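[Discussion] Sanity-checking designs against the backbone

I'm trying to build intuition for which residues belong where. Below is a structure token string of 128 positions. I'd appreciate it if someone posts a full sequence so I can compare it with mine line by line.
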């Protein structure tokens, strides 16, 4: 069976996605240096999504006590108590504004499913 396999010519070898992204970024940088317009402009929605994930990656994690956070999530999750405890004030306000719709209660259940399997350190703290 190995005899029927044709070797892949060097021009058709697979390129890793990381190499492809690096090459694209290098090409864009060279275009900027030469004063050429980018091949395609990023749309507003794409820029918004990109900036969200960049800010999320850059944000520092907050250390909270797991037991306290779970209790707040169970008893005050509908009002965003656990989000205020984790210094996520914008989400806490969203939970408060939507508490009458059931959205915040549903999101608190999801938060519980995320928090429960997290491993606490020797002091009982987790990073959120």
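Best answer:
Here's mine. Compare freely.
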């Amino acid at each position: 069976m190995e005899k029927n396999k044709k070797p892949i010519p060097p021009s058709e070898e697979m390129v890793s996605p990381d190499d492809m992204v690096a090459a694209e970024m290098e090409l864009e940088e060279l275009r900027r240096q030469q004063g050429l317009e980018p091949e395609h402009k990023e749309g507003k929605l794409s820029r918004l999504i990109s900036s969200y994930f960049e800010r999320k990656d850059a944000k520092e994690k907050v250390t909270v006590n797991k037991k306290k956070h779970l209790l707040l999530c169970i008893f005050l999750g509908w009002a965003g108590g656990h989000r205020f405890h984790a210094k996520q004030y914008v989400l806490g306000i969203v939970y408060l504004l939507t508490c009458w719709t059931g959205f915040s209660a549903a999101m608190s259940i999801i938060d519980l499913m995320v928090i429960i399997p997290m491993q606490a350190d020797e002091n009982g703290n987790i990073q959120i």
